[in-house]
Design a protein that fits this description.
TIM Barrel; 5-stranded parallel β-sheet; 287 residues; 37% helix; alpha/beta; single chain
Length: 287
């Protein structure tokens, strides 16, 4: 039984297919401008899907993308969605020192705010790259003027993850809230339940059950995420990648849009800032 009273957070990490961290060993940054960009078309399709359902969402957007597609950024805001930051150039926060991270998140925030004419309050680190080794990054975000982060995934994963993190929104400093991507607690483990390659790989019925369990048992909103390239089965194939990366990136791309449409129908969705920022004054850690 779903819990319709709870509004979950729908989030989109606005980056193109050639910018994903798993492709970094195969595609140099100086090649990005020579690649076929498909992000504008794909985000446009997502906006159409959301408009059909009357649904609002949060778009964690790269400054690099915003500079090249300013009208797309303005459309996101004009249609009632939250514009948030994914950093400038999709560099993992764990690969940057204090100054480099500060420069990155400040640069992205200014680009987005100048284009949108509205404050940018949220940030998501590329590849959920804040963890035990760089918790100082939260101080950087607070100093840059962000109000919340969604940069920790409380699971064990070979590319990211902080399984000992609280599973739900908690304060990480004065005026800053961390809102982790949602997991389900089963058999003394946190299991991924809210997006990315897991959503494409798992049967839809299982994903629906996992999100429904968080709503019904934990009485918490879920945080779901996906990328624009995940609804684009026609994207150019990247040559020479290893088998694991190929599987993770391309599995079930043709089925993704239909699964998203079903997800939009089965749950209530909204913006991160509307759902979580009202909790900030008295937010406390919850395991």
């Amino acid at each position: 039984m779903l819990a319709p009273a709870i509004t979950n957070a729908l989030t989109i990490d606005v980056e193109d297919y050639f910018q994903v961290s798993a492709f970094a060993p195969y595609i140099r940054r100086d090649e990005w401008d020579r690649r076929e960009c498909r992000v504008e078309r794909n985000v446009g399709r997502i906006l159409d899907l959301l408009a059909e359902r009357g649904t609002q969402a949060t778009f964690f957007t790269l400054g690099w993308v915003a500079e090249r597609y300013p009208q797309l950024v303005r459309r996101i805001v004009a249609e009632g969605h939250e514009l948030a930051s994914h950093g400038y150039g999709h560099e993992r926060a764990s690969d940057l020192d204090h100054k480099a991270l500060a420069d990155d998140v400040t640069r992205a925030k200014k680009i987005l705010e100048d284009l949108a004419g509205a404050p940018v309050l949220g940030y998501r680190a590329p590849s959920f790259s804040i963890g035990t080794g760089n918790l100082w990054a939260f101080d950087v975000l607070a100093e840059a003027g962000y109000r919340y982060s969604s940069s920790i995934y409380p699971i064990a994963h070979d590319h990211y993850g902080m399984p000992d993190s609280p599973r739900f929104a908690y304060r990480v400093g004065a005026g800053l809230l961390e809102v982790p991507v949602t997991t389900v607690r089963l058999l003394n483990r946190n299991l991924p339940s809210s997006g990315g390659g897991y959503f494409r790989l798992l049967p839809y019925a299982l994903s629906r059950w996992l999100i429904g369990r968080v709503n019904a048992s934990d009485r918490e909103p879920a945080v779901f995420y996906f990328h624009p390239w995940e609804i684009d089965p026609g994207q150019p194939r990247v040559d020479g990648i290893d088998a694991k990366t190929r599987f993770r990136h391309y599995v079930n791309l043709p089925r993704m849009e239909a699964k998203l449409q079903q997800l939009l129908q089965d749950f209530r969705w909204g913006r991160m800032d509307h759902i979580f920022l009202p909790r900030l004054p008295d937010a406390g850690a919850r395991a």
